[in-house]
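Re: the 813-residue chain
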Amino acid sequence: MNPHTLKVLEYSKILEQLAGYCAFSGGAEMARSLLPSDDLITIKTQLAQTSEAFRLLEQKNDVSFGGVKDLRQFLEKAERGSMLFAPDLLEIKNTLLRARNLRNLLIRLEHLYPLLAEMAYNIEPCDHVSAEIARCINERGEVVDGASNDLGQIRRELRVAQDRLLSILERLVHSSDLKPYLQDALVTQRQGRYVIPVRSEYKGQIDGIVHDQSASGATLFIEPLKVVQQNNAVRELELQEEKEVRRILTQLTQLVSEEALYIRRNVQILAELDFTFAKAKYAYQLEASAPEMVAFQAPQKTYKKQAEAENVFQHPGSVIDLHRARHPLLDQKQVVPIDIYLDDETYIIVVTGPNTGGKTVTLKTVGLLTLMAQSGMMVPAEPGSKLSVFEGVYADIGDEQSIEQSLSTFSSHLTNIIAILDEADPRSLVLFDELGAGTDPDEGSALAMALLEKLRDRGITTFATTHYSDLKLYAHNTPGVRNASVEFNVETLSPTYELSIGLPGRSNALIIARRLGLNPTIVDAAESIVRPDTLQADALLDDIKRAKQEAMQAESRAKERERQAQLVERDLRYQMASIEEARRAVITETRAIMEAELTQARNEVDQIRRQLTRGNFGGGGHEDFVTRATEELARRQQSQQSGDELRRDVIIPGDVQDRLAGPIEVGDRVWVASLQASGEVLSVNERAGEADVQLGNFRLKLPIKRLELRQKAVKPTLDAVKISVNASHESPGMELDLRGERVEDGLARLERYLDSAAMARLPWVRIIHGKGTGAMRDAVRNSMKQNPIVRETRSGDLGEGGDGVTVAKLVSS
């Protein structure tokens, strides 16, 4: 990418912020050296890795790189043969352990994060290295006694020798003979020897060797002659200890040197993972999303120059479609999101509007988000955004005048423009701020128009800002070029920073002057000087803007109505599916109950027959009774097989049935043609012409004229109660809504409802208690667990209301 572009777009600030999210210097180094790529596959892979890290951090926020260090300097030192110290080796061990833990975590989650797992597979745990270091060095960075047998033996002997020496010295400092000559009654060390502090004026009173004196000279540190031999023994053991420790550290260093290739690769992979997770953390901070990166599209539009019909050129196929995009370096809570897009007929955008209105911010937003995306970073824009992969991004933004090179603002801009024109091609993105500014307005406008025409001829995607009215007309009249503007609120005299593509902006100079209180006669005089066609164009722009806003509002209302219609359609489809499910469940349950009762009745008749036979009853009375019972059983079995009893509770949709005449009453079975379902009438309001109908587990209020009477309510007889489905208990419906109830009232309603449901032989019911604080939900579920009528309960599925609903299966009566 062009270095000048990276500078003016402040790309380095993005990288510095990114580096701040890295856990160790290896990842930060990668962040600061990051450059955009122009390879589509590479970019997609990097974005996919960042997206996986983003999702992993959302699900598991304890992914840590704590303890990871940049080990390269230690590895170079080991390879040169220099001994590593214990703290250095401890850092190597901690880094290897963290690498192993990250490897195990990412491989375990490979099915969810395959790209991160692929990176983790390349980590070589080097367990033998970390285990050997851990065996020899503790967490305080000290070589432990068990590092070798010799070290353990030396340290045991050293402790014994030190105890003997200190015991002798302690007796000396506390003896009455020496105590008057001592500065303090303590034992200390100087130059590796154990000494006692003696007042300088009494140095001749104690035989010994002077090793040091205090800064003031008042105290001498003397090793008494009585302990010289013991001190020598301690010192010899200390030297042996140091030698053995160095031997152990050298051995560990050699082990690290042998595995340096794998450890160095581990550090590199850890840096890449750290860098990837830093991009994810940065995206989380920016509330960013991964854009869809696309190749340049095949040209769909061909234009002809008006002056030269033979000169044909095409749209370059670039794609820029950023939804609610935000400048990444601005306060994300304050910055105004903008929509930036190119349609199939446009690849040059001319942005106009007042100063400080956000024109330059728009250019930098386009440039920075393009660079971020091509660097594998998620961008601060809504999901669904799309960007092409540009082979070059060029920008001329800001005041670049140079005193040293005697360049004015205009000359500096022109120098940059010349360089850009030499390098840019149809696969490039060009950004021009205040094109043609810094010189005579007429000449600057003409030059800017010629530059845009040249870029259009070459098919180069371009965004440019300007104040020149001629460029607005050029953009309006030229194929491939389109106007855009940043909005300005004339009421508050402040910019809104919103971008409107398709309309040119206005300077609003006269309106601002009038609102700020400039003498009206001066403003009127200025308006009279302005060309009438300019004022007329401004008025026309106002009308177009209002029409556009009205169209957008109408479109928004239409989309909302469409959304509501889709919700209603989904709800009806769900209701139909639920009704069908309930219908099948009731049919199955009813058939099973009737078959069980018929079997029971048959067994009872057989038992009576056997009893009569064993009793050897005379006469024909009992035989007549058995005959009648058998005939009754056969009649009932035939009735069950024909489905008459079944249809008393359920009318199967689709059955060919004749519509019955007569009024619709409570308990009647009716057919609702619009829903293709049957149900039971729960109540009738003849005045309103409506009826409440239970359809499956839904209770609906429907016009009576939409109901077709299919079966009148059956009045149960004494015989029917004995063997058939209990049709005398009115169904309470398969749904109870307790939302808004107090817990005590709700539980009372629930108990009554479950009793009625059991009497009506409902197979299952649906209790709506809502989510809220969970008090009603917990009370309902606890109550149903203790109710013998309830066989089992479960939370509602996603389409049933989720955790705000409890579905209970009832015990068959």
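The mean pLDDT is 82.
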